[in-house]
Recover the amino acids of this structure.
């Protein structure tokens, strides 16, 4: 039972990280129909901004310093995403395949710059000492950092949902996910919504980059790529464009991966792919996805 | 601009003839084993890029899992040679059959989706293959260490530096085989359906043809051809390693095809060869003195081949769709119509 709770907690923590990676992907895909291969780069850029802030700007070992660095990491990812959208994506308006392809190019190009500047070794990310402490629940000792991941994800999910639900730009984004052409036909500036979505997606990815840096014990230019793939899987299972679906599937994938890896080491990734195959067979639109018209 | 010019067959025949006899001439850049090895690898990447072009350029399926079939060719050939101790030809043949089986299963699942979802799903399957190889199940793949092909079980003329020219010919033979197969396939009626699927899937199904069957056919054939390239790569590289199975391979293939242009077969081959040679050469640039003198902020990224290749890729997608062969056809079109204006 103790191990059960422990694995459940670490699984939820991992799921929270997956959600942060995937929520931007699903929003960007939902509104623009663009598969963003540069999302892993947003994550990496955010992580490096976070490391820079935590060592030079603030003291990352204090709680306040860490969370401020987290914010800087998020802003870094968000601004980078905005820059990419303005410089590259906007110019390929309505050329969806080319937009997807060009994000691959951006991922390679920026990845090469990051690898050239900072070597591919892990770079240490300062974090408050209490992150590695444990929290006693019954007989199990739960690492406290997992609660941080979960808390940050939940807050972001609530913030995003509130933004989508209660603001005008959120309304435009939701309408854009539903039917992009209709929104622009009504004379509403969809471009602004596009930029907002890219910024928010980059923000979430940047925050996840810093948190993953803490989770892995450091950041490296290669970290984005591996998490991007989990992000894709989570998005497909949850339903492309659906934020609650993404949260649900991220949770399922994170918990399941930890459980399977505990009881059958190394098989976690296989089970995830099997679930992906199952979902595609019986529910191709994903768990909470809508059938596209 | 949908004209598809028939290129000069004589020129192509001459080029193949030159490459075939080049190692025997004793002069020219292909006389040494180093360049022969570089070109052997480049031929195989060219052939692999063509198999990807069959899928992406001709059928319009953006797959991110193509590395799976290449790696499956590399590993199965190596394992069959090492474990079953069979002749390399038989091992390669078995590897192609095995890869086709994997392709049918993967295709049956992933082809239920289309477009971008298909890209994601194939990426996931490709990663599954990489994880399978890296985790070293049943001690088959030896994980990160890679799996050397047992040289004693190969025909002896394929071993040793002095025999590099035989590896070169093997790679050239594979390239020609793949080229002719794709050529023939794209000219058959099935190939026409592939192109129709790329252009308008709805119309194909309205005619009464089943798109899923033709997609699966294209998927499986391109996987089979990729595994042939893989088998040859196992011999040319001397060992199977997990780097053949990474998503980076598929992304490199995408780059090659975009670089060369999706509209033509020769474009993909050219793109693959240029990419392969450039990525070896650009790494040498790192050691060059000129680059060493530059500040690290510039020289660092320059030493990464994907810096320049990624930039070229972005520029081609944004400003020159059609790549090298597209540019050639545009120039030729202009030239042929110079008097009609």
């Amino acid at each position: 039972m103790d191990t059960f709770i422990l694995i459940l907690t670490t699984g939820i923590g991992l799921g929270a990280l997956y959600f942060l990676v995937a929520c931007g992907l699903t929003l960007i895909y939902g509104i623009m129909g663009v598969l963003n291969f540069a999302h892993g780069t947003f994550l990496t850029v955010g992580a490096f901004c976070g490391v820079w802030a935590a060592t030079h700007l603030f003291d990352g070992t204090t709680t306040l310093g860490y969370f401020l660095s987290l914010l800087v990491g998020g802003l870094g990812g968000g601004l980078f995403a905005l820059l990419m959208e303005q410089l590259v994506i906007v110019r390929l308006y309505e050329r969806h395949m080319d937009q997807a392809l060009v994000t691959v190019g951006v991922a390679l190009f920026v990845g090469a710059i990051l690898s050239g500047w900072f070597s591919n070794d892990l770079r240490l990310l300062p974090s408050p000492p209490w992150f590695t402490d444990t929290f006693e629940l019954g007989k199990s000792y739960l690492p406290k950092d997992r609660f941080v991941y979960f808390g940050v994800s939940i807050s972001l999910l609530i913030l995003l949902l509130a933004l989508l639900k209660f603001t005008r730009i959120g309304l435009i984004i939701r309408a854009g996910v539903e039917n992009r052409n209709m929104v622009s036909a009504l004379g509403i500036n969809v471009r602004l919504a596009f930029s907002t979505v890219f910024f928010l997606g980059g923000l979430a990815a940047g925050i996840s980059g810093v948190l993953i840096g803490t989770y892995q014990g450091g950041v490296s230019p290669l970290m984005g790529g591996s998490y991007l793939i989990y992000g894709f899987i989570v998005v497909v299972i949850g339903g492309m464009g659906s934020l609650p679906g993404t949260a649900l599937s991220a949770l399922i994938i994170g918990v399941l991966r930890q459980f399977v890896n505990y009881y059958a080491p190394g098989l976690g990734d296989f089970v995830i792919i099997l679930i992906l195959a199952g979902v595609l067979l019986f529910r191709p639109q994903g768990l909470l996805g809508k059938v596209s018209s | 601009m949908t004209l598809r010019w028939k290129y000069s067959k004589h020129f192509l025949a001459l080029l193949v003839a030159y490459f075939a006899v080049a190692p025997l001439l004793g002069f020219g850049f292909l006389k040494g084993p180093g360049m022969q090895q570089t070109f052997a690898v480049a031929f195989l990447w060219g052939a692999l890029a063509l198999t990807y072009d069959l899928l992406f350029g001709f059928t319009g399926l953006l797959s991110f899992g193509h590395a799976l079939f290449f790696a499956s060719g590399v590993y199965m050939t190596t394992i069959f040679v090492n474990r079953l101790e069979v002749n390399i030809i038989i091992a390669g043949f078995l590897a192609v059959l095995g890869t086709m089986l994997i392709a049918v299963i993967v295709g049956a699942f992933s082809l239920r989706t289309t477009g971008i979802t298909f890209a994601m799903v194939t990426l996931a399957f490709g990663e599954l293959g990489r994880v399978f190889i890296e985790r070293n199940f049943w001690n088959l793949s030896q994980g990160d260490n890679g799996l050397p092909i047992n040289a004693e079980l190969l025909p002896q003329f394929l071993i040793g530096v002095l025999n590099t020219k035989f590896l070169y010919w093997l790679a050239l033979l594979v390239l020609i085989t793949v080229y002719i197969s794709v050529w023939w396939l794209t000219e058959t009626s099935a190939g026409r359906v592939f192109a129709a699927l790329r252009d308008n899937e709805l119309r194909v199904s309205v005619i009464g043809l089943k798109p899923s069957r033709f997609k699966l056919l294209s998927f499986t054939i391109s996987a089979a051809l990729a595994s042939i390239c893989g088998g040859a790569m196992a011999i040319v590289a001397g060992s199977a390693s997990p780097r053949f199975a990474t998503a980076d391979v598929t992304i490199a293939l995408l780059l090659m095809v975009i670089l060369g242009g999706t509209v033509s077969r020769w474009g993909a081959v050219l793109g693959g060869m240029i990419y392969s040679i450039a990525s070896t050469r650009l790494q040498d640039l790192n050691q060059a003195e000129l680059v060493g003198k530059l500040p690290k902020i510039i020289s660092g990224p320059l030493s990464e081949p994907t810096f320049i290749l990624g930039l070229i890729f972005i520029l081609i997608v944004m400003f020159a769709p059609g790549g090298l062969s597209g540019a050639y056809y545009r120039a030729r079109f202009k030239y042929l119509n110079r008097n009609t204006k």
